[in-house]
């Protein structure tokens, strides 16, 4: 079915909007995937803070060129869908990577982090990153560790003095009772 120039312009504008809003894109081949599985993928990607859309290869190629993104060989061939990560790139990559492992019909082709191209291995490495709240907690723990050590170091002489005074008081209470 042929698409009119006006429809192509509308589709291109939509692709460009998605590319501009997203921090990462994950390209997936979905040959042989039924509609129920596609809906499950969409729901999982939506939970991770993104969207999952089937794209037309030629129009996607034009949109990537317009956005200044290098086209990787073999990524815009066969049936292509794109996971757009609007808030959590690692979460979207993990969701799509899980489907890549569980469904034989879904294969990750590559992706983009910003304007930088990612290989299949890079996408899988991105998927293996811990969730954003865990990374924030680790960073906060790393930042607070020196402060906690400083407070312990400053409090130690007072704690030691209190221990000596308590021991002396206990010894004095024992000798008075005898």
SSE topology sketch:
Layout lengths: L4 H17 L2 E6 L5 H13 L2 E6 L1 H10 L13 E6 L3 H14 L4 E7 L2 E3 L1 H8 L4 H46 L1
Antiparallel strand pairs: 1-3, 1-4, 2-3, 4-5
Helix pairs in contact: 1-3, 2-4, 4-5
Number of helices: 6
Query: Low-confidence parts, pLDDT < 50 over ≥5 residues?
Result: none
Total number of distinct structural domains? 2
β-strand amount: 15-25%
What distinguishing features does this structure have?
6 helices, five-stranded antiparallel beta sheet, alpha+beta, 178 residues, Alpha-Beta Plaits
Describe the structure in your own words:
By secondary structure, the chain is of the alpha+beta class. It has six helices and five strands, in the order αβαβαβαββαα. It has two domains: 125 residues, Alpha-Beta Plaits; 48 residues. It has a five-stranded antiparallel β-sheet, with helices on both faces. It is elongated and about 100 Å long. The model has no long low-confidence stretch (mean pLDDT 84).
Quick overview of this protein structure:
The protein has 178 residues and is of the alpha+beta class. The protein is 61% helix and 16% strand.
């Amino acid at each position: 079915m042929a698409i009119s120039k006006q429809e192509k312009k509308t589709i291109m504008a939509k692709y460009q909007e998605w590319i501009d809003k997203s921090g990462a894109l994950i390209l997936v081949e979905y040959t042989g995937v039924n509609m129920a599985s596609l809906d499950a993928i969409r729901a999982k990607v939506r939970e991770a803070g993104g969207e999952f859309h089937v794209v037309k290869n030629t129009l996607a190629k034009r949109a990537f060129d317009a956005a200044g993104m290098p086209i990787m060989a073999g990524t815009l061939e066969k049936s292509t869908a794109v996971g757009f990560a609007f808030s959590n790139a690692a979460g979207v990559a993990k969701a799509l990577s899980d489907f890549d492992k569980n469904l034989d019909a879904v294969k990750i082709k590559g992706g983009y982090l910003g304007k930088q191209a990612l290989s299949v291995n890079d996408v899988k490495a991105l998927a293996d990153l811990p969730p954003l709240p865990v990374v924030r907690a680790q960073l906060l723990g790393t930042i607070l560790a020196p402060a906690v050590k400083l407070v312990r170091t400053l409090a130690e002489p007072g704690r030691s003095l209190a221990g000596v005074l308590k021991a002396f008081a206990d010894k004095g209470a024992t000798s008075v009772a005898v």
